[in-house]
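ok, trying the design again with the full structure, not the truncated one.
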């Protein structure tokens, strides 16, 4: 399990004031991002009915099929730390290190909890959707149609 790092000498200062950092972070969208909206559109064009940001399931999955207990998360490469160990050393402040490590820890916790509650969980990375949206669509279709 990854521990949050504190006090990295020489690299723990944010270049922005706390007020400016707050302003910047408040502009970052947590849901209905560009790649999410494009993917939602692709699903709908293919006749797939689903719920977005389903609040009745732990972790509010980006895409949910409640009757089948299927939860799908569309994870941003940066915010959710795709291949994080290979680029974490490039981060310049503890803020970003702690933020991304906390996100990764929460993602694991959410996945474990949902699976324990009987949900099937699929996580799809942003770069996978951008590279080949049809492949991601096929994964979802296969999961939704499983057993039929």
């Amino acid at each position: 399990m990854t521990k949050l790092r504190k006090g990295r000498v020489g690299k723990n200062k944010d270049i922005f004031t706390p007020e400016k950092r707050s302003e910047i972070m408040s502009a970052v969208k947590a849901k209905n991002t560009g790649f999410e909206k494009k993917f939602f559109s692709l699903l709908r064009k293919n006749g797939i009915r689903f719920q977005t940001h389903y609040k009745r399931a732990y972790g509010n999955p980006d895409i949910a099929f409640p009757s089948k207990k299927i939860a799908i998360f569309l994870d941003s490469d940066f915010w959710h730390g795709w291949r994080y160990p290979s680029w974490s050393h490039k981060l310049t402040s503890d803020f970003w290190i702690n933020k991304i490590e906390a996100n990764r820890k929460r993602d694991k916790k959410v996945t474990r909890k949902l699976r324990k509650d009987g949900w099937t969980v699929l996580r799809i990375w942003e770069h996978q959707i951008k590279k080949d949206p049809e492949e991601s669509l096929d994964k979802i279709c296969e999961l939704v149609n499983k057993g039929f």
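Keeping the full-length input from now on. The beta strands are 51-52, 63-65, 70-75, 120-125.
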